[in-house]
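Narrative of activities, Objective 1.

The group set out to show that a structural description can be obtained from nothing but a protein's sequence at a throughput compatible with the screening campaign. Below is one input-output pair from the validation batch, recorded exactly as produced.
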Amino acid sequence: MGQGFSDQLDPYPIHPTAAQKTVDQIFDLTALPGENLSTEDTAKRKEIIAMYRDFGIDLSLDMGGFYSKTLASFRPQSWSSQTKQPLSDNYLQPFSIDAPIYHPIPCNTPQVQLPVGYFSSAQLHVYKGFDGVGFGVAISSKTDPVRTIKSRADGKSYQAHVRDDTLELFLPTNAKADQQVLFIDGVNHTLVNCSKAQQEGSDYTCGFAVQSTLPNLGDHGGTIASGMSNLAGLIREGEATDQANRLAHGIIIVSNRMWKARVYPAVSGDGWIYKNQNANRYGRGLVPYGGVVRLDPTLNLEALNLSLPAKRILEAVQQYGAYLVDTGSPAFGIYTGVKSSEFEKFAAIYTPNNDKGIQNQIAKVLSTYKVYVVPPMVKRS
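Output recorded for this entry:
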């Protein structure tokens, strides 16, 4: 690790407790009462703990609550201000070149193979059409008025340029979901991640909102459980349907199998799991919050007769990995800022009982071929 990062990026430290605790101690501290892990999953979780421990990561560090001030203090405080693309127009690559999601997984990285079939199902979360659970991305310009965006959870308010048609165009359609809208201020290069977005007069309120300034590492400023930015790793319009180019970053996923453990770039997890709840419904996970999973890089995807969106997404999981950021469904839920109609130009998103649908194609590959857990993409001294 450490290759390809700028001189400006701070190294990520080795956890002092990593060498002090045994694998069994870390296992016990990260166990969710009532999980009832199988013998195979127990052994596999310990193998994964050992991999992280050997890499200098203590998955049981600071278990007092869902948010870890200790892990947050380990975040790099300095990074390159250079971005892969200019901070303008569609903001497709708005994070620092040092952001973990932009760094390919080295071929010699440590890895532990997940049990075959661990990711038995997949779903594309889009913001318009189909499930309506994705994230809407609204980008403003200097002609748009400055408005107030208020977070109801903590009472904080943020100022940003916001376009008039934001909710009309970008509010996710599933009212039972979090209805996440990402407000990008194209003047000041700020990003407000907003859940349960609503308009009140000319201003906006959110169930919870967090603001950050671009470019950053994508490791903070989010409203998702991991604490990572909602925008970092989000599949954007045109990326998974580009005929000529692959995705140039990792993706973010949710899962119905979670583990009471965190690893950078995550610094937090769901409140319920740190209250030792819902073990039977969402426990038994083998990937920590913030954990990166990788599809076998030797697998020839070209030979599998996949639709273009399925191939592009799986290519990204091969090269950059998928980051687990929150609880959700199904086993491998893929966050996008895309309308369903974009994917449906190439194949149906879902078709029952066959492998023609995009989701079924992704699930079949992930459940059939090797998938690995790998350490975080960080710089080391």
